[in-house]
Design brief:
By secondary structure, the chain is of the alpha/beta class. It has 10 helices and 14 strands. α5 (191-198) crosses α6 (214-226) and α9 runs parallel beside α10 (316-332). The structure holds phosphoenolpyruvate and manganese (II) ion (MN).
Length: 337
Amino acid sequence: MIVVLKPGLSDEDVHKVVERIESLGLKAHISVGKERTIVGAIGDERLLADQTLESFPGVEKVLPILKPYKLVSREFQKEDTVIAVNRHEIGGKRVHVMAGPCSVESREQVQETALSVKEAGATFLRGGAFKPRTSPYAFQGLGEEGLNYLAHAREVTGLAVITEVLDPRDLELVYRYTDILQIGARNMQNFKLLTEVGKLDKPVMLKRGMSATIQEFLLSAEYIAAAGNRKIILCERGIRTYETETRNTVDLSAVPLLKQLTHLPVFVDPSHGTGRWDLVTPMALAGIAAGADGLLIEVHPHPELALSDGPQSLKPKKFAALMAQLKKVAVAIGREL
Ligand code: PEP
Ligand code: MN
Protein backbone atom coordinates (compact mmCIF):
# COMPACT_ATOMS: atom_id res chain seq x y z
CA MET A 1 0.00 0.00 0.00
CA ILE A 2 1.00 3.61 -0.35
CA VAL A 3 0.97 5.76 2.78
CA VAL A 4 0.69 9.48 2.09
CA LEU A 5 2.04 11.59 4.95
CA LYS A 6 0.72 14.94 6.14
CA PRO A 7 2.79 17.95 4.99
CA GLY A 8 5.50 19.40 7.19
CA LEU A 9 6.31 16.30 9.24
CA SER A 10 9.64 16.19 11.05
CA ASP A 11 12.09 13.37 10.31
CA GLU A 12 11.22 11.98 13.72
CA ASP A 13 7.48 11.80 12.85
CA VAL A 14 8.26 10.11 9.52
CA HIS A 15 10.40 7.64 11.40
CA LYS A 16 7.48 6.80 13.74
CA VAL A 17 5.30 5.96 10.73
CA VAL A 18 8.06 3.78 9.30
CA GLU A 19 8.42 2.02 12.64
CA ARG A 20 4.69 1.35 12.73
CA ILE A 21 4.72 -0.05 9.17
CA GLU A 22 7.63 -2.33 10.02
CA SER A 23 5.95 -3.47 13.23
CA LEU A 24 3.10 -4.74 11.03
CA GLY A 25 5.55 -6.95 9.15
CA LEU A 26 5.86 -4.78 6.04
CA LYS A 27 8.91 -3.13 4.52
CA ALA A 28 8.89 0.66 4.25
CA HIS A 29 10.22 2.55 1.27
CA ILE A 30 10.35 6.34 1.76
CA SER A 31 9.99 8.69 -1.14
CA VAL A 32 10.46 12.41 -0.42
CA GLY A 33 8.73 14.74 -2.87
CA LYS A 34 8.58 18.52 -3.14
CA GLU A 35 5.16 18.77 -1.51
CA ARG A 36 4.62 15.42 0.13
CA THR A 37 6.48 12.44 1.48
CA ILE A 38 5.01 9.06 0.70
CA VAL A 39 5.94 5.69 2.11
CA GLY A 40 5.52 2.52 0.10
CA ALA A 41 4.57 -0.32 2.48
CA ILE A 42 5.72 -3.50 0.79
CA GLY A 43 4.30 -6.89 1.69
CA ASP A 44 0.92 -8.61 1.84
CA GLU A 45 -1.30 -5.84 3.16
CA ARG A 46 -4.32 -8.19 3.17
CA LEU A 47 -2.97 -9.78 6.31
CA LEU A 48 -3.37 -6.49 8.16
CA ALA A 49 -7.14 -6.50 7.72
CA ASP A 50 -8.42 -3.76 10.03
CA GLN A 51 -5.07 -2.68 11.43
CA THR A 52 -5.33 0.43 9.38
CA LEU A 53 -2.65 3.08 9.37
CA GLU A 54 -5.18 5.72 8.49
CA SER A 55 -5.65 6.87 12.08
CA PHE A 56 -1.91 6.91 12.86
CA PRO A 57 -0.60 10.41 13.61
CA GLY A 58 1.09 12.00 10.60
CA VAL A 59 -0.75 9.83 8.06
CA GLU A 60 -3.06 11.60 5.66
CA LYS A 61 -4.23 8.78 3.44
CA VAL A 62 -3.64 5.09 2.82
CA LEU A 63 -4.04 3.71 -0.70
CA PRO A 64 -4.32 -0.07 -0.91
CA ILE A 65 -2.75 -1.70 -3.95
CA LEU A 66 -3.97 -5.26 -3.64
CA LYS A 67 -7.52 -6.54 -3.75
CA PRO A 68 -8.68 -7.75 -0.33
CA TYR A 69 -9.36 -11.25 -1.69
CA LYS A 70 -6.53 -13.42 -2.87
CA LEU A 71 -7.17 -17.10 -3.71
CA VAL A 72 -10.17 -16.35 -5.90
CA SER A 73 -8.51 -13.46 -7.74
CA ARG A 74 -7.34 -13.51 -11.33
CA GLU A 75 -4.01 -12.11 -10.09
CA PHE A 76 -3.50 -15.30 -8.08
CA GLN A 77 -4.56 -17.67 -10.86
CA LYS A 78 -4.52 -16.61 -14.50
CA GLU A 79 -6.28 -19.66 -15.98
CA ASP A 80 -10.01 -20.22 -15.64
CA THR A 81 -11.01 -22.71 -12.97
CA VAL A 82 -12.71 -25.68 -14.58
CA ILE A 83 -14.71 -27.85 -12.18
CA ALA A 84 -15.33 -31.50 -12.94
CA VAL A 85 -18.70 -32.76 -11.67
CA ASN A 86 -19.85 -36.20 -12.71
CA ARG A 87 -19.08 -36.30 -16.44
CA HIS A 88 -19.32 -32.55 -16.84
CA GLU A 89 -16.90 -29.68 -16.78
CA ILE A 90 -18.13 -26.36 -15.48
CA GLY A 91 -16.21 -23.31 -16.62
CA GLY A 92 -14.96 -24.93 -19.83
CA LYS A 93 -16.13 -24.40 -23.41
CA ARG A 94 -19.51 -25.93 -22.79
CA VAL A 95 -22.25 -23.86 -21.23
CA HIS A 96 -24.30 -25.73 -18.59
CA VAL A 97 -27.93 -25.23 -17.73
CA MET A 98 -29.20 -26.29 -14.31
CA ALA A 99 -32.97 -26.43 -14.33
CA GLY A 100 -35.84 -27.61 -12.18
CA PRO A 101 -38.46 -26.42 -9.73
CA CYS A 102 -37.89 -23.81 -7.06
CA SER A 103 -39.05 -26.29 -4.40
CA VAL A 104 -39.19 -30.04 -4.45
CA GLU A 105 -42.90 -30.71 -3.91
CA SER A 106 -43.50 -34.37 -4.74
CA ARG A 107 -41.80 -37.35 -6.34
CA GLU A 108 -43.93 -36.97 -9.49
CA GLN A 109 -43.36 -33.22 -9.82
CA VAL A 110 -39.57 -33.61 -9.62
CA GLN A 111 -39.44 -36.60 -11.92
CA GLU A 112 -41.68 -35.03 -14.55
CA THR A 113 -39.62 -31.82 -14.49
CA ALA A 114 -36.33 -33.70 -14.55
CA LEU A 115 -37.33 -35.74 -17.60
CA SER A 116 -38.43 -32.66 -19.51
CA VAL A 117 -35.38 -30.51 -18.73
CA LYS A 118 -33.06 -33.38 -19.57
CA GLU A 119 -34.82 -33.85 -22.90
CA ALA A 120 -34.31 -30.13 -23.60
CA GLY A 121 -30.57 -30.34 -22.90
CA ALA A 122 -30.11 -29.39 -19.24
CA THR A 123 -27.24 -31.19 -17.52
CA PHE A 124 -28.20 -30.56 -13.88
CA LEU A 125 -31.44 -30.83 -11.96
CA ARG A 126 -32.09 -28.06 -9.44
CA GLY A 127 -34.68 -28.11 -6.64
CA GLY A 128 -34.83 -26.94 -3.05
CA ALA A 129 -35.59 -29.32 -0.19
CA PHE A 130 -34.65 -26.70 2.42
CA LYS A 131 -36.22 -23.39 1.44
CA PRO A 132 -35.21 -19.97 2.75
CA ARG A 133 -38.62 -18.28 2.87
CA THR A 134 -39.27 -14.69 3.82
CA SER A 135 -42.36 -15.71 5.79
CA PRO A 136 -42.20 -18.35 8.51
CA TYR A 137 -45.70 -19.44 7.42
CA ALA A 138 -44.68 -20.14 3.81
CA PHE A 139 -43.75 -23.64 2.60
CA GLN A 140 -40.33 -24.43 4.07
CA GLY A 141 -39.45 -27.45 1.92
CA LEU A 142 -39.74 -31.21 2.38
CA GLY A 143 -36.31 -31.68 3.96
CA GLU A 144 -34.88 -35.19 3.65
CA GLU A 145 -38.02 -36.46 1.91
CA GLY A 146 -37.34 -33.88 -0.82
CA LEU A 147 -33.70 -34.96 -1.06
CA ASN A 148 -34.93 -38.50 -1.65
CA TYR A 149 -37.12 -37.36 -4.54
CA LEU A 150 -34.12 -35.58 -6.06
CA ALA A 151 -32.05 -38.75 -5.69
CA HIS A 152 -34.79 -40.74 -7.39
CA ALA A 153 -34.98 -38.28 -10.32
CA ARG A 154 -31.20 -38.39 -10.56
CA GLU A 155 -31.34 -42.16 -10.88
CA VAL A 156 -34.06 -42.07 -13.51
CA THR A 157 -32.55 -39.33 -15.67
CA GLY A 158 -28.82 -39.42 -15.00
CA LEU A 159 -28.92 -35.68 -14.31
CA ALA A 160 -26.55 -34.39 -11.65
CA VAL A 161 -28.21 -32.58 -8.74
CA ILE A 162 -27.77 -29.15 -7.20
CA THR A 163 -29.67 -28.26 -4.03
CA GLU A 164 -29.46 -25.64 -1.33
CA VAL A 165 -28.09 -26.10 2.16
CA LEU A 166 -29.43 -23.54 4.62
CA ASP A 167 -27.85 -24.54 7.88
CA PRO A 168 -24.47 -26.05 8.83
CA ARG A 169 -26.42 -28.63 10.89
CA ASP A 170 -27.94 -30.05 7.68
CA LEU A 171 -24.67 -30.13 5.80
CA GLU A 172 -23.84 -33.79 6.34
CA LEU A 173 -27.29 -34.81 5.15
CA VAL A 174 -27.37 -32.58 2.07
CA TYR A 175 -23.81 -33.57 1.18
CA ARG A 176 -24.87 -37.20 0.86
CA TYR A 177 -27.55 -36.40 -1.71
CA THR A 178 -26.17 -33.64 -3.87
CA ASP A 179 -23.48 -33.15 -6.51
CA ILE A 180 -23.25 -29.39 -5.98
CA LEU A 181 -24.05 -27.56 -2.73
CA GLN A 182 -25.97 -24.34 -3.26
CA ILE A 183 -25.51 -21.42 -0.89
CA GLY A 184 -28.43 -19.05 -1.36
CA ALA A 185 -28.40 -15.28 -1.61
CA ARG A 186 -29.63 -14.90 1.97
CA ASN A 187 -26.73 -16.95 3.27
CA MET A 188 -23.98 -15.36 1.18
CA GLN A 189 -22.51 -13.84 4.32
CA ASN A 190 -23.20 -16.74 6.68
CA PHE A 191 -19.50 -17.06 7.32
CA LYS A 192 -19.82 -20.20 9.49
CA LEU A 193 -21.68 -21.97 6.67
CA LEU A 194 -19.13 -20.76 4.10
CA THR A 195 -16.28 -22.10 6.20
CA GLU A 196 -18.03 -25.45 6.67
CA VAL A 197 -18.65 -25.99 2.92
CA GLY A 198 -15.07 -24.85 2.44
CA LYS A 199 -13.93 -27.98 4.27
CA LEU A 200 -15.75 -30.29 1.84
CA ASP A 201 -14.68 -31.75 -1.49
CA LYS A 202 -17.90 -31.09 -3.43
CA PRO A 203 -18.42 -28.01 -5.61
CA VAL A 204 -20.29 -25.07 -4.14
CA MET A 205 -22.51 -22.63 -5.99
CA LEU A 206 -22.43 -19.31 -4.17
CA LYS A 207 -25.29 -16.97 -5.02
CA ARG A 208 -24.79 -13.22 -4.77
CA GLY A 209 -26.52 -11.59 -1.81
CA MET A 210 -29.32 -9.29 -2.88
CA SER A 211 -27.47 -6.23 -1.58
CA ALA A 212 -23.91 -7.46 -1.90
CA THR A 213 -21.24 -5.57 -3.78
CA ILE A 214 -18.96 -7.48 -6.12
CA GLN A 215 -16.18 -7.13 -3.56
CA GLU A 216 -18.33 -8.58 -0.77
CA PHE A 217 -19.38 -11.40 -3.10
CA LEU A 218 -15.77 -12.28 -3.83
CA LEU A 219 -14.78 -12.03 -0.18
CA SER A 220 -17.49 -14.59 0.61
CA ALA A 221 -16.05 -16.87 -2.07
CA GLU A 222 -12.65 -16.28 -0.48
CA TYR A 223 -14.00 -17.71 2.82
CA ILE A 224 -14.78 -20.99 1.03
CA ALA A 225 -11.44 -21.05 -0.78
CA ALA A 226 -9.50 -20.14 2.36
CA ALA A 227 -11.06 -23.14 4.16
CA GLY A 228 -9.70 -25.40 1.40
CA ASN A 229 -12.43 -25.81 -1.22
CA ARG A 230 -11.53 -24.19 -4.55
CA LYS A 231 -14.48 -25.68 -6.45
CA ILE A 232 -16.63 -22.56 -6.36
CA ILE A 233 -19.20 -21.38 -8.90
CA LEU A 234 -20.48 -17.82 -8.59
CA CYS A 235 -24.07 -16.99 -9.46
CA GLU A 236 -25.45 -13.54 -10.25
CA ARG A 237 -29.12 -13.73 -9.24
CA GLY A 238 -30.15 -10.09 -9.30
CA ILE A 239 -29.74 -7.35 -6.77
CA ARG A 240 -32.35 -5.22 -5.08
CA THR A 241 -32.85 -1.79 -6.58
CA TYR A 242 -35.64 0.82 -6.50
CA GLU A 243 -37.39 -0.86 -9.45
CA THR A 244 -40.68 -2.52 -8.55
CA GLU A 245 -41.73 -4.01 -11.91
CA THR A 246 -39.22 -6.80 -11.44
CA ARG A 247 -38.39 -8.80 -8.30
CA ASN A 248 -34.70 -7.97 -8.60
CA THR A 249 -32.47 -6.26 -11.14
CA VAL A 250 -30.14 -8.65 -12.96
CA ASP A 251 -26.70 -7.07 -12.83
CA LEU A 252 -25.42 -8.35 -16.15
CA SER A 253 -22.30 -6.20 -16.03
CA ALA A 254 -21.32 -8.32 -13.03
CA VAL A 255 -20.68 -11.21 -15.44
CA PRO A 256 -17.81 -9.75 -17.51
CA LEU A 257 -16.55 -7.90 -14.44
CA LEU A 258 -16.37 -11.10 -12.38
CA LYS A 259 -14.64 -12.84 -15.28
CA GLN A 260 -11.96 -10.13 -15.10
CA LEU A 261 -11.57 -10.17 -11.34
CA THR A 262 -11.74 -13.91 -10.68
CA HIS A 263 -10.87 -17.21 -12.33
CA LEU A 264 -14.05 -18.88 -11.00
CA PRO A 265 -16.96 -19.94 -13.25
CA VAL A 266 -19.86 -17.47 -13.31
CA PHE A 267 -23.55 -18.35 -13.72
CA VAL A 268 -26.68 -16.25 -14.12
CA ASP A 269 -30.07 -16.99 -12.55
CA PRO A 270 -32.60 -15.08 -14.64
CA SER A 271 -35.53 -16.58 -12.68
CA HIS A 272 -34.78 -14.96 -9.32
CA GLY A 273 -33.08 -12.15 -11.23
CA THR A 274 -36.36 -10.97 -12.72
CA GLY A 275 -39.14 -12.78 -10.83
CA ARG A 276 -41.12 -12.96 -14.10
CA TRP A 277 -41.28 -15.97 -16.42
CA ASP A 278 -41.75 -13.71 -19.46
CA LEU A 279 -38.36 -12.06 -18.84
CA VAL A 280 -36.44 -15.26 -18.14
CA THR A 281 -35.59 -16.20 -21.75
CA PRO A 282 -34.23 -12.80 -22.87
CA MET A 283 -32.11 -12.47 -19.72
CA ALA A 284 -30.87 -16.05 -20.06
CA LEU A 285 -29.71 -15.35 -23.62
CA ALA A 286 -28.14 -12.06 -22.54
CA GLY A 287 -26.36 -13.77 -19.64
CA ILE A 288 -24.64 -16.25 -21.94
CA ALA A 289 -23.89 -13.52 -24.49
CA ALA A 290 -22.24 -11.56 -21.65
CA GLY A 291 -19.89 -14.47 -20.98
CA ALA A 292 -21.60 -16.54 -18.29
CA ASP A 293 -20.57 -20.19 -18.03
CA GLY A 294 -24.09 -21.36 -17.35
CA LEU A 295 -27.58 -20.69 -16.10
CA LEU A 296 -29.80 -21.65 -13.18
CA ILE A 297 -33.43 -21.70 -14.30
CA GLU A 298 -36.69 -22.54 -12.54
CA VAL A 299 -38.99 -24.88 -14.44
CA HIS A 300 -42.31 -26.27 -13.17
CA PRO A 301 -44.83 -28.44 -15.03
CA HIS A 302 -47.69 -26.43 -13.47
CA PRO A 303 -46.39 -23.04 -12.35
CA GLU A 304 -49.90 -21.99 -11.32
CA LEU A 305 -49.85 -24.72 -8.64
CA ALA A 306 -46.24 -24.23 -7.49
CA LEU A 307 -45.64 -23.93 -3.74
CA SER A 308 -42.97 -21.29 -4.37
CA ASP A 309 -41.88 -19.00 -7.20
CA GLY A 310 -44.61 -20.02 -9.69
CA PRO A 311 -44.65 -16.57 -11.37
CA GLN A 312 -41.00 -16.89 -12.41
CA SER A 313 -41.11 -20.56 -13.44
CA LEU A 314 -41.08 -21.64 -17.07
CA LYS A 315 -43.27 -24.45 -18.32
CA PRO A 316 -41.25 -27.29 -19.88
CA LYS A 317 -42.25 -26.28 -23.41
CA LYS A 318 -41.05 -22.71 -22.94
CA PHE A 319 -37.85 -24.04 -21.40
CA ALA A 320 -37.21 -26.23 -24.45
CA ALA A 321 -37.69 -23.20 -26.71
CA LEU A 322 -35.23 -21.24 -24.58
CA MET A 323 -32.64 -24.00 -24.93
CA ALA A 324 -32.96 -23.99 -28.72
CA GLN A 325 -32.34 -20.24 -28.84
CA LEU A 326 -29.56 -20.48 -26.31
CA LYS A 327 -27.69 -22.95 -28.46
CA LYS A 328 -27.49 -20.38 -31.24
CA VAL A 329 -26.16 -17.71 -28.88
CA ALA A 330 -23.61 -20.10 -27.37
CA VAL A 331 -22.32 -21.14 -30.81
CA ALA A 332 -22.20 -17.51 -31.97
CA ILE A 333 -19.75 -16.65 -29.19
CA GLY A 334 -17.60 -19.74 -29.66
CA ARG A 335 -19.12 -21.92 -26.95
CA GLU A 336 -21.12 -25.13 -26.91
CA LEU A 337 -24.37 -26.20 -25.37
C1 PEP B 1 -33.16 -20.63 -5.16
O1 PEP B 1 -32.32 -20.74 -6.08
O2 PEP B 1 -34.03 -21.45 -4.95
C2 PEP B 1 -33.12 -19.44 -4.28
C3 PEP B 1 -33.77 -19.44 -3.11
O3 PEP B 1 -32.44 -18.44 -4.80
P1 PEP B 1 -31.77 -17.15 -4.07
O4 PEP B 1 -30.97 -17.66 -2.93
O5 PEP B 1 -30.95 -16.56 -5.17
O6 PEP B 1 -32.91 -16.26 -3.66
MN1 MN C 1 -36.98 -19.98 -6.16
